[in-house]
Recover the amino acids of this structure.
């Protein structure tokens, strides 16, 4: 089994509703495919450069896990199908950083809470599609020039 680092961008509304279940979502998808989670923690909440599925903010979760190389394809597939995961990145790493274990333990403290959301945390409004109406081309009328200089 190899060691992998996964960075997962989750829908901020899901994290706000219950950050522990969002954390478990990532862990469960890794475990479902035979992976073994070493550490998992909330990394940061950020404003996105562009809206993803109508969201302007997202919460990143950083996890280190062990999995067989052939399981990574199934893990990636499950994260692609999960609607609450906006984006993800999985990399193979050699060692688990020592600081990661300490940082992950900090979230296990009894009184740990997620900071309040900033004011720009609301999803973008969904625009209703406007029906395109094709207009018939206007009828072209040719004017015949009158002959002013001719008398009969």
């Amino acid at each position: 089994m190899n060691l992998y680092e996964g960075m997962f961008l989750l829908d901020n509304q899901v994290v706000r509703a219950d950050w522990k279940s969002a954390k478990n979502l990532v862990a469960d998808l890794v475990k479902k495919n035979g992976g073994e989670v070493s550490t998992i923690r909330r990394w940061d909440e950020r404003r996105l450069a562009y809206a993803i599925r109508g969201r302007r903010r997202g919460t990143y979760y950083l996890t280190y896990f062990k999995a067989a190389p052939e399981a990574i394809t199934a893990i990636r597939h499950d994260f692609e199908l999960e609607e609450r995961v906006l984006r993800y990145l999985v990399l193979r790493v050699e060692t688990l950083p020592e600081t990661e274990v300490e940082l992950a333990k900090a979230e296990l403290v009894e009184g740990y809470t997620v900071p309040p959301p900033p004011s720009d945390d609301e999803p973008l409004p969904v625009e209703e599609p406007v029906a395109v109406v094709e207009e018939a081309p206007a009828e072209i009328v040719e004017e015949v020039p009158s002959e002013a200089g001719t008398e009969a």
